[in-house]
Amino acid sequence: MITMIIDSLTIKNFRSFDSYSTKFNPQLNIIVAPNGAGKSNLLEAIGLIGTGSSVRTSKSREAILWGEHVARVEVLLETATKLAVSITASKKHFFVGGSETNFRDFMPHVSVVYFQPHDLRLVSGGPHNRRLFLDRTLSTINSTYLLVRGEYLKLLTQRNALLKSGRYDEMLFTVIEDPLVERAIDMIIARNNLVSRMNTALLPQEIVLEYLPSPQAMRELLQESAGKGEENLRTTLREYLREKFRELREKEATLGFSLIGPQRDDVKVLIIDPLAPDGLKDILTFGSRGQQRVAVIRLLFTTADIIEQSRGERPILLLDDVFSELDARNRELILHTITKQQTFITAPDESEISMLDFSDASRISIG
Questions:
Q1: What confidence score (pLDDT) does residue 276 get?
Q2: How far apart are CA 70 and CA 88, in angstroms?
Q3: How far is CA 52 from the centre of its chain?
């Protein structure tokens, strides 16, 4: 098994760090510090290298140390490749080996799977959180998906602008909608395939994902076209979406935005329950907080497996305060998984990590 390994990290003016550098263990790295000491900021910096964006804010300004104008995070990989992200209030700059590059070419170098306490929103929050989860996973295993999603959002913006303009130009709508439909189909098929792959791995863990494309009538089309080939599926979805976009134009013009498409997809997270009418229950409605936390952890660990299968190398695992609220059985799941790749674990005190074997671990100081 090939694993990605970060050898060292240097931070400048990022979050609470003015200047910080450290070396890492190729296996297990443990950061124990009180809440507010900066341990989550350290994991966020590593996550920035793996995702190209902050998992905690969409506003670059918030990631820059107060009073400064530029933040920088730099890592040296075990392969001797140097990666860096420089952040200003308006833009991020990406560097490989000291040379600036674009986001798409930067992304394949490191992948991470990141658990943080507010990841419970993956099951308890709105659809945006689940779409983001799918899109980040797909972008990690296939950088082309980034382009597809970017093109779709650009075309969607153009269509929404036309709806708001009050002009009904059939030719212009068609010019926008034809490629919009093609990119939508790309995203729908990619998301549906990912959910299917995840379900194969999750079923033994008594978790089932249900992909809910927008509009939801497409769910039946996906099911009916299963096994008939992708071209057949694309033809079916193309005919349906083109007609649906035409049908909704008048209504959407009064609202100023599009009512259907991948930007409105969702994923339902279900747990197997023999006592439920159909053998499944929605974890958002019926699951306890502990069940929701375990479901998120299992989803993320399954994601790590899929990334490894797709890329041929194991992603780095970032676990922020992961052990709280877990019983012994699920703590054992984590202990089994952290040995598979380079792992970073934070905890607020020693009691949270008393079960860990420190023989192959390093303590990372942030003081």
A1: 86
A2: 5
A3: 11
Q: What is the pLDDT of residue 281?
A: 92
Backbone CA torsion sign across 42, 45, 49, 54: positive
Both 322 and 271 in one domain: the answer is no
The yes-or-no verdict on residue 171 having pLDDT over 90 is yes
Give the CA distances from residue 37 to residues 17, 42, 47, 153, 267, in Å, rounded to whole numbers and listed in that order.
10, 10, 18, 38, 35
What is the Cα 301 distance to its own chain's centre? Answer: 12
- Considering the domain architecture, whether residues 155 and 251 belong to the same structural domain is answered as yes
Where do we find the tokens 């190398």? 313
Locus of tokens 């400048």 = 12
pLDDT for residue 169 is more than 70: yes
More confident site: 307 or 334: 307
pLDDT of residue 152: 98
Name the residue with tokens 């392969």.
Answer: 79
Residue 139 and residue 79 share a domain: no
CB-CB contact of 344 with 10 (8 Å): no
Give yes or no for residue 54 having a pLDDT over 80: no
Rounded to whole angstroms, how far apart are CA atoms 226 and 223?
A: 5
User: Pairing mode, if any, of strands 266-272 and 280-282?
Assistant: antiparallel
Question: Does 173 share its domain with 279?
Answer: yes
> What CATH number is attached to the domain comprising 155?
1.20.1050.90
User: What is the domain extent for residue 176?
Assistant: 127-284
Same domain, yes or no, for 192 and 336? no
CA distance 263 to 261: 5
Domain of residue 340, CATH code: 3.40.50.300
Q: What is the pairing mode between strands 28-32 and 361-363? A: parallel
Q: Among 5-14, 34-43, 194-203, whose mean pLDDT is lowest?
A: 34-43
Together in a domain, 54 and 131:
no
pLDDT, position 215: 93
pLDDT score, position 39 = 92
**Residues 21, 10: contact at Cβ < 8 Å?**
yes
Q: Is 21 exposed, middle or buried (0-12, 13-18, 19+ CB in 10 A)?
A: exposed
218 φ/ψ sector (left φ>0, alpha ψ -120 to 50, else beta): alpha
pLDDT at 58 over 80: no
Q: How many domains does the chain have?
A: 2
Place of tokens 């197997």: 272
